[in-house]
Amino acid sequence: MALKQDDFAIPQEKLDELNVEIQRAMSDYFARSPEAAPLDGMSLTFNFAFGFGRELDAHVAGKIISVDLD
Q1: Full-model pTM
Q2: Confidence at 1, pLDDT banded by 50, 70, 90
Q3: Whose CB among 28, 56, 59, 61 lies 3.0–4.6 Å from 38's, allowing a Cys bridge?
């Protein structure tokens, strides 16, 4: 059992979906707190379980955005 480069490939449509959700989270954050800086930090977590699939989580603007990569 080993990881391969292809295990981390992100289809363009999933990346686009994630970017739309990040933009929405930032817009909502600015609407609630116009003076704040929601991108002081952002982290991405790649979840991978053999036989169960892959998921990418973005932690941004006080939210966790999950995208199923399979």
Answers
A1: 0.74
A2: low
A3: 61
